[in-house]
Amino acid sequence: MTEPEFAPAGADSRPLWLVSQGDAGPLWPEGIDPAFPLAAGFLGKSGQLCLLPGPGGVAGALFGIGCPATPADRPARERFTMARAAEALPEGAWRIEGAPAGYDLTHAALGWLFAQYRFNRYKPAEPPKARLVCPNGVDAVQLLAMAAGEYLARDLINTPAADLGPADLEEVARDLAARHGAEVNVITGAALAKGFPMIHAVGRAAGPGRAPRLIELRFPGGGPAVALVGKGVCFDTGGLDIKPSSSMLLMKKDMGGAANVLGLAETLARLGRAGGLRVLIPAVENAVAGDSFRPGDVLTSRKGLTVEVNNTDAEGRLVLADALAWAAEETPALMVSMATLTGAARVALGPDLPPFFCDDDAAADALYRAGCDHADPVWRLPFWEPYEAMIEPAIADLDNAPSGGFAGAITAALFLRRFAEGAGRYVHFDIYGWQPAAAPGRPKGGVGQGMRAILHALPELV
């Protein structure tokens, strides 16, 4: 994984002046002659850049931030505008000058770090060479930890399934544990089949070397008991209810929940806040073979609830259910599940705004506010209890894929909540984990969702 970095403190740096727009046009910083930038067409519009010439070449630059005051009830249309400067500036160290009062330098610096990310495992991909000197008053340690977690999540989601099967995901977890002194426990084979029968059923058809497993990380030290459970379906064919080829193209990202909880664990560990944290990842490949689990099968879960399989392509909730049940047995103060779970969530909110489900109004409000404040937006959907009947079939306790097509994200969340009983608070995130088109600070490909919202809301959640 590439390490995010700021330019060294005290580095020989060039100034990057931030220019906002007022009612009468650009608000020029003191000492800047507007003649040259105006002649170059620079008006301080959001994302505009103007390089300033000097005796030795480029002496500095102007960067437009438009009207920086966004009403609190309306998100900015572009999340990380400062990332445009990181991408376009010449090589070297740069320092921000002339930020208007109230301008969020922390947000700007984080966007710059996110712009440095490149996925270069399979071909060279040079990151931008402009480096930012961390602005005064900005917590560099926290930003670097958040960027490292984001980089890890992106790397994992971007890696094809041929190079990131269940065993490979286990190795990633072991590497993270070794870096931060966590304990690792991996359950496979007969122990998995006996103790976590739905995880085993979903993953048993995978080929040699890709057997299902449940990966557990425990971080030592004091702190509230927090369990993070991430869906680790390393590739999803749909099973016997096989997906069309067009729907399989992005299924390397079906372990996005696991990528996000590992990224969040990386961030918490770097910040010294992982004490008491437990991470569970049911890692499987939903494959097609003679021993695939079948539509119509009834599985008995770890919790003892029976589940009728009405669609083998609704496998994520099956593997999460067994992991959630195990996590709940220790009655954690907070349990969070993250999963690329339903197309219904994408239809409702699109790829950029993941829904979350939470019964506690104060906790839900804390997550929403943290998401708004840290450029990681999330949106609450309800555990709508009148829909409970939709997940209760005739011959088993639960149905993994209710017919009718309505409220798919909600019925999936209700299904999972049945297995989370015992936790002090339970929150479920139905993420997409993928950036469909490049945006500042977010290249096309894998992306973290919900991690910063959880990180900053955590003190209020436990």
TrEMBL record:
One GO MF term: manganese ion binding
Domain of life of the organism encoding this protein: Bacteria
GO cellular component terms, A-Z: cytoplasm
Record GO biological process: proteolysis
Sorted UniProt keywords: Aminopeptidase, Hydrolase, Manganese, Protease
All copies of domain Cytosol aminopeptidase, residue ranges: 311-318
Family the UniProt entry places it in: Belongs to the peptidase M17 family.
Protein name in UniProt: Leucyl aminopeptidase
Lineage: Bacteria, Pseudomonadati, Pseudomonadota, Alphaproteobacteria, Rhodobacterales
